[in-house]
Amino acid sequence: MTPTQPAASSGQAAAPDVAGVSADHPGVVELFALLAYGEVAAFYRLTEEARMAPNLRGRINMASMAAAEMSHYELLRDALERRGVDIVPAMTRYASALEHYHRLTTPSTWLEALVKTYIGDALAADFYLEIADALPPEIAEVVRGVLAETGHSQFVVAEVRAAVTASDRQRHRLALWSRRLLGEAITQAQYVLADHDELVDLVMAGGEGLTQIAEFFDRLQETHRSRIQELGLA
């Protein structure tokens, strides 16, 4: 506390943590639940897609990423339990939206699976981290911990770049696939926000509301361009 900030008296209510967002905002539980289902869905997706790998190294890398997803799920489960929330019914509310996204973006080849792992998951992380920036520190810490880079995805960059360097056909095909992933990710984010008032309120309580959301979707496309360049798809 700085000298210019008088201490609150014991009879005063605690101030919101960040820009009007308190740690007990109902949207926090919804955010944790949404993230939790995303981790479980990613675990099963990565486990299934590991079977598409052409060699043992690829299967091991996918399995390692799947294991990291379950560790992140456990972090969210513990955070919700501390709030007295049963994680299963809470996260089930988001099953339909996320499963719909995965049905629409089911990869048909190993390289498509790799691109989805790298780009699709990163787009989702952008969405959640944007929200985290307006959250109280203890809440943002959980979100960032769940989305922390494990390093496993770096094998994707090397494998995809090698494939597209050797084949222009693969490069064009995967570039189209990456654009589809972007479109579906934006549609999913908009659908989730439209269907869950607590999440919208959480986002809007943190700053500039609808303007902030619109600007975020613009930034999403910029970060997407950077990632496809890293993969050699631009």
Blueprint (SSEs and pairs):
Elements: H1 26-49, H2 56-82, H3 87-92, H4 95-104, H5 110-132, H6 137-146, H7 154-166, H8 168-195, H9 197-205, H10 210-230
Helix pairs in contact: 1-2, 1-4, 1-5, 1-9, 2-6, 4-8, 5-7, 5-8, 5-10, 7-8, 8-10
Protein described:
The protein is mainly α and 234 residues long. It has one domain: Ferritin, core subunit, four-helix bundle (Ferritin, Up-down Bundle). The protein has helices at 26-49, 56-82, 87-92, 95-104, 110-132, 137-146, 154-166, 168-195, 197-205, 210-230. Helix 1 packs across helix 9 (197-205), helix 5 (110-132) runs parallel beside helix 8 and helix 8 runs antiparallel to helix 10 (210-230). The N and C termini lie far apart (49 Å). The relative contact order is 0.15. The model is unreliable at 1-18 (pLDDT under 50).
| Strand coverage percent | under 5%
CATH architecture: Up-down Bundle
> Can you say what the CATH homologous superfamily is?
Ferritin, core subunit, four-helix bundle
Strand count, sense and barrel status of the largest sheet are: none
If helices are DSSP runs of H or I spanning 4 or more residues, what is the number of helices?
A: 10
What would the principal axes of the Cα set say about the shape?
A: globular
- The overall pLDDT average reads 83
Helix content: over 70%
Provide the structure class. Answer: mainly alpha
How far apart are the termini? 49 Å
What's the total number of strands? 0
Alpha-carbon Rg, integer:
19 Å
The H/E string reads: HHHHHHHHHH
CATH class call: Mainly Alpha
**CATH fold title:** Ferritin
Domain module tally: 1
Uncertain stretches: 1-18
